[in-house]
Design brief:
Elements lengths: L2 E4 L4 E6 L5 E6 L7 E9 L2 H13 L12 E5 L10 E7 L16 H20 L2 E2 L8 E6 L2 E6 L6 E2 L34 H15 L10 H9 L13 H11 L10 H5 L7 H15 L7 H7 L29 H7 L12 H4 L9 H9 L8 H7 L2 H11 L3 H11 L6 H4 L3
Helix pairs in contact: 2-3, 3-5, 7-11, 7-13
Length: 430
């Protein structure tokens, strides 16, 4: 295939790609005579095409995770769309793959988290330019690997809209096709306003798609997804990552049925899911200090005392003893952990022994009590093996996460829902 679409710039289509409507091509520049590019081609629809071109102009400042427009125009050729008038958009050659083409099970967790962060940064950039994408989905994200570095790039701005001072009314979307990743306000017959949170919903669906290795947050049956989206029936049970609980906490907020309850992009970027282990431990320290300012049975301290850190269940009586879910009984090091931390097997109980050595009377059913134990990790003991774990933030957090996967999520939700104004210092994290 060789189709010249612009004789003045010598822009040519050379071959089709696996992606519908996307072609490989060449466009000369000052350095390379036939630079390889990607060319997106659509049948001409005046309003939509003008909108896409206008919004791409606003995104012309290069950003690594958002597609850049090199050129655009109109052409007609019998080999493309049966000779109908088409609009083309020329982009740098990112990749011939999208997220839909990737075997997500082969990606390591650090790589996955970096991809999610890139998507978050890209959408934040788009929103900063006062544009709503409105069609975020795995097919609209390029995926490329260059020298071992993975980069994802958001493209597909055909349904995008500029938003300045007011939300967009859904009446302006009647000509647009919704997708499996569209928010409730983008579904047919919706009378809800469309804002930046519409994209947050779609991004949450992509997060789940990646973290579940290709599953959909609203079910495997394509025909039922729109119904499940409108009726707020997600299924987030297929997450495949070591931090599933805190990831679920973030995704649940992002795909909230009510737009006003979804996080802003700034809140997504600052969510505990993206924190380093050191940040998480610092959060625990700040939270502990904040709770010490209040009466035992009031405020956040009292709330945390009523929550079991293993099950997340609230109890009416914080003194109630649940021996089955007592966190104090889960501090023994496993054989694998002893090997990982280079600790003798006869010292597998070194962390648990701290409970007997401490002057603090820990409540094994209290999240606050566990928070207190973590906070005091550095002053509990001179035992060299305890220090090997407690003074290494990665070791310590892995130790906590392995035993109490809901712990960080419990802290996050409790702080966010707290009415205490004195928590401003702690809430700055997210």
């Amino acid at each position: 295939m060789l189709v010249e679409i612009d004789s003045k710039t010598s822009t040519k289509i050379t071959s089709e790609t696996k992606i519908d409507g996307l072609y490989e091509g060449t466009k000369p520049d000052e350095v390379v005579e036939d630079r390889k590019v990607l060319i997106k081609v659509n049948c001409y629809i005046e309003e939509r095409n003008k909108r896409e071109a206008c919004n791409l102009d606003k995104l012309e400042v290069p950003f690594p995770n958002v597609a850049t427009r090199l050129d655009s125009g109109f052409f007609e050729n019998d080999q493309i769309h049966n000779g109908e008038k088409c609009i083309y958009t020329v982009m740098p050659y990112y990749s011939d793959k999208t997220l839909n083409d990737v075997d997500l099970s082969t990606l390591g967790e650090e790589n996955v988290k970096d991809i999610l962060k890139q998507l978050t940064d890209g959408l934040s950039f788009i929103h900063d330019k006062k544009i709503i994408h409105r069609d975020l989905r795995p097919e609209n994200v390029f995926y490329k690997v260059d020298n071992g570095k993975t980069t994802v790039v958001i493209y597909g701005f055909g349904l995008s809209k500029e938003i300045l001072h007011a939300p967009l009314y859904n009446s302006s979307f009647t000509e647009d096709k919704t997708t499996d990743y569209s928010s409730p306000e983008m579904q047919p017959d919706s009378e809800l306003d469309v804002t930046e949170s519409t994209d947050v919903f779609s991004l949450g669906g992509i997060f789940y798609f990646i973290l579940s290795e290709g599953k959909h947050a609203f079910g495997d049956e394509v025909s039922s997804r729109s119904h499940h989206i409108v009726n707020d029936k997600p299924n987030l049970s297929k997450l495949k990552c070591s931090e599933a609980e805190i990831a679920k906490n973030l995704i649940q907020r992002m795909i909230n049925n009510k737009a006003s309850d979804r996080p802003t992009m700034e809140e997504v970027k600052n969510h505990p899911f993206f924190w380093s282990n050191t940040d998480r431990l610092n959060f625990c320290t700040m939270l502990y200090r904040a709770t010490e300012e209040w009466n035992f049975k009031r405020g956040l301290k009292g709330d945390l005392n009523l929550i079991n850190p293993i099950t997340g269940a609230k109890r009416r009586d914080y003194k109630m003893n649940d021996s089955k879910n007592n966190w104090c009984e889960r501090l023994q090091l496993s054989t694998n952990e002893c090997k990982l931390y280079d600790i003798p097997k006869n010292q597998a109980g070194c962390i648990k022994n701290l409970l007997n050595q401490s002057e603090v009377n820990y409540n094994g059913n209290s999240t606050y009590s566990l928070l207190c134990f973590i906070r005091h990790r550095k002053s509990h003991s001179d035992n060299e093996f305890v220090k090997k774990i407690s003074l290494n933030d990665n070791y310590l957090w892995d130790f906590v996460k392995e035993r109490f996967p809901k712990f960080l999520s419990i802290l996050t939700v409790t702080v966010r829902e707290s009415k205490d104004m004195s928590l401003i210092e702690v809430k700055y994290f997210y």
